[in-house]
Amino acid sequence: MKIFFPICVALAVTALLPAAEAAERITLRNGFEVSCHHHAEAEGRTRLYLSASEDNYIEFDPEEIAGVETVPDPPAPKPVEPAAPTAARAASPEAQLSAADLHEMLIQAGREHNVDVDLLASLVKAESGGNTRAVSRTGARGLMQLMPATAKGLGVEDSFRPEQNVRGGSAYLDALLTRYHDNLALALAAYNAGPAAVDKYGKVPPYRETQAYVARVIHEFNRRVAARAAQARQEVASATPAKAAR
């Protein structure tokens, strides 16, 4: 039995573009808009490339697309205000996210993208351990450890804001599950090492870190699913005597 049911992701995506290039804005029939570098037809599907690279794309059925328009170059960015000290930001409300609040965010994200909440929780545990301020040695940030370029492409303005990070990371995982036809191992490997590495080898890449990551997430996911099933059986067993006594 399938535990998650990924669907074609509908993202409000900001394109990953050099300043001198234009983008395309794709309007979907469900009302969402997707900004991309360019699009192309491939194997009966429409691929929306999030950057100039041919490895970074999401797919839709042609009938899902209502319109395509070219977006002019954006104006030069305004000077960025100096960031607040880390200590001050760490004291912000979102940095004090409770386990219950995180669980509620994951439930909402799971509903939006039809991804099992236990899978999302397992990924968060492996990526950040629930630390909203986590930063990896490669620069990935937040609960679901989004790289800056990936976060930007997913419309995440601040990866340290839990609701944005969870929304973006869940949408990205959903897109990867769709891309790899619900193959959880490949989707997790692509989340960790990038789709280009998975496509290069046609399997989980032979990287020790990635292989350990995939095994760790799947193990935690299976543990959570088993615990949830055991709790459900216990609740049914507890309710049975009460019904019999009536």
Notes on the structure:
- The protein has eight helices and six strands.
- By secondary structure, it is α+β, with helices and mostly antiparallel strands.
- The chain has a domain at 96-225: Lysozyme (Orthogonal Bundle).
- A three-stranded antiparallel β-sheet has the order 2-1-6, with no helix packed on it. Strands 3-4-5 form a three-stranded antiparallel β-sheet.
Let me know the largest β-sheet: 3 strands, antiparallel
Q: Overall 3D geometry?
A: globular
Helix and strand composition category: alpha+beta
CATH first level of the domain at 96-225: which class? Mainly Alpha
User: What is the CATH third-level topology name of the domain at 96-225?
Assistant: Lysozyme
Q: What is the succession of H and E elements?
A: EEEEEEHHHHHHHH
